[in-house]
Each structure stands twice: as C-alpha cells, then as structure tokens.
Design a protein that fits this description.
Blueprint lengths: L1 E5 L2 E6 L2 E4 L3 H7 L7 E4 L3 H7 L13 H11 L2 E4 L1
Parallel strand pairs: 2-5
Antiparallel strand pairs: 1-2, 3-4
C-alpha cells in the first residue's frame, strides 16, 4: 500500500500478497540499512508500473483493501486496487 501524489492530487495503490522468508544475509545485499520484505503476489507488473508513483511501499499483516477503498471514497482519493 502507498499513498502518493500525482499532479498535485493524492492517489493510493494497494494489493494483497504473502510475505516470503528470505535469508538474512541475502537481504543485506539489497538493503542493509532498512527493513525489507519479499512478497508473492498476483499483480500485473506492467499495470503496477503504470499507476504506482513512489519508490517504496508499505506492508501490513492482514487484508485491509475494503477499508482502504472506503477511506479513499470518503476522502475523494483516486485509488488502484491492483
């Protein structure tokens, strides 16, 4: 999930997936200074790249997509449920 700005308007993109355990030493190759997660998902990566406008993403445990959709509708935020 990520809230971002495009053309001075807030937008949000989100999807569901499952975290995958990865070797800690391998993770250090990618990102030694911050938490990193690896996620299995069924998102079309071309679609993701078209709509996603940020260089990082937030992960939470659980499926909050319905809540995020409702929040975006209430606030008038365009959203992409990928």
């Amino acid at each position: 999930m990520r809230l971002f700005r495009k053309n001075d308007q807030y937008e949000m993109a989100f999807f569901t997936g499952n975290t995958v355990k990865e070797d800690r030493e391998k993770i250090k190759e990618y990102s030694p200074y911050r938490p990193t997660s690896f996620v299995e998902h069924h998102v079309d990566l071309n679609e993701f790249m078209k709509v996603y406008s940020s260089n990082h993403i937030h992960c939470v445990e659980g499926d909050y997509t319905a809540d995020l959709e409702e929040f975006c509708r209430m606030k008038g935020i365009r959203y992409y449920h990928l």
